[in-house]
Amino acid sequence: MQTRRFAALTGLAAAGVALGVAExxxxxxxxxTSPLVSVGGVVIDSxxxxxxxxxxxxxxxxxxxxxxxxxxxILAIVAALIGILAARREIWGYLGLGGFGVIGIVAxxxxxxxxxxxxxPTLVGVLxxxxxxxxxxxxxxxxxxxxEERRSFLRTAGYTLxxxxxxxxxxxxxxxxxxxxxxxxxxxxxxxxxxxxxxLPPSADAGLPDLSPFVTPNQDFYRIDTAxxxxxxxxxxxxxxxxxxxxxxxxxxxxxxxKRPMIERYITLACVSNEVGGDLISNTKWQxxxxxxxxxxxxxxxxxxxxxxxxxxGFTAGTPTAVLxxxxxxxxxxxxxxxxxxxxxxxxxxxxxxxLYGYVSATxxxxxxxxxxxxxxxxxxxxxxxxxxxxxxxxxxxxTPRAGANPRAGEVTIAGVAWAQxxxxxxxxxxxxxxxxxxxxxxxVPSTDTWxxxxxxxxxxxxxxxxxxxATDNGGQTQTDAVAPxxxxxxxxxxxxxVEVR
Length: 502
Prior knowledge:
The protein is α+β, with helices and mostly antiparallel strands.
């Protein structure tokens, strides 16, 4: 009788070859046709909202990596079981691989804008896996095998598995690297008229260690989205369609977009999943075209109170039409910090709307704006229980000293950021232990659409202390101390840190 260990290795090697070959084929057919990516996309779209919230809370911006690793672990366990079953009766192994193939093909064909040939990588991969299974079963070492036969099988199966994994990862890396980076590098951003640039006050950034810089570098900007694989969309292929309940349907190409008047603004974006004191928030300089100008051309019809922005991968967000036309600098952004959008942040075009959480406004890889109504359509996250409209709440955070820090007694600088996008921050207060609230110094900002740095000089005394912050917006509304989770419309509460002064 063949040992379970060898049989399990046979199944792992066969599944590894299936996935590795599928990834190679997906280089030609498109990254989204990969069975792992397709099934992962279905999982992302299908799991309950609570599971997604948990993933973001635990893994933050690594949630999709965690999903991929989890899927591979589950696949490895099932593949090992298939190998064990195949050792008993070969047909069961083929049926197991065939079952995986059906799941991969259905998933690939069900994805948004999937090409008709989306099934090819999975089909070719399953056939290669089945051939590998057959080949290894004929070489598998049973209970009566000699030590040399066992070692030979282990080498053969092990090399096959490792080779398949290397090929698979190399193909995945190549498919992402060869995408649109060259196209992005060739983009020449159009000039912005001087009166369309929001200047940055020279003293907007205190430049303190551990304090978040006023302008977030592109590589540090937070990323939360539903794309398991970053969409690869060239400027040549990009176009924006504005349709639905409008008097005039519009289609705009990349070259036409660049000819339109551009603005440049510092705007802070925040994820609704951001916990109190969390870092799913960033501020940067954006360049783009005002959405209101495009909507004015399309002329929304009466009752069209929602603009549904749609990504190339099918993600949707619903933004109130009135918000996009109330004078704020909502834009179709093409650049961050003077560079074309990074691919993972929406290249070539994304939405940026100050004052709203990203799940209702910040669609990346944007290709469509549809005028609709909240009564007629629920966007991606609304179907999963989040609030239909997501105005950002007044919040603040202590960046320094960090929780658990051990500053020396004497003058200690407490500093952080506060935000109430499109309303602005008028006051930040700090409380040490249960003492009186002390007013912090606010640094200047270019507009009410950004976060605001603040500082306070504290005469620290030895011992354990709790530092708490709260902010007040320009409307006179002080952030609430009532603790609430992000679901369904943003977390609330005061941020506190405990320090031990030496």
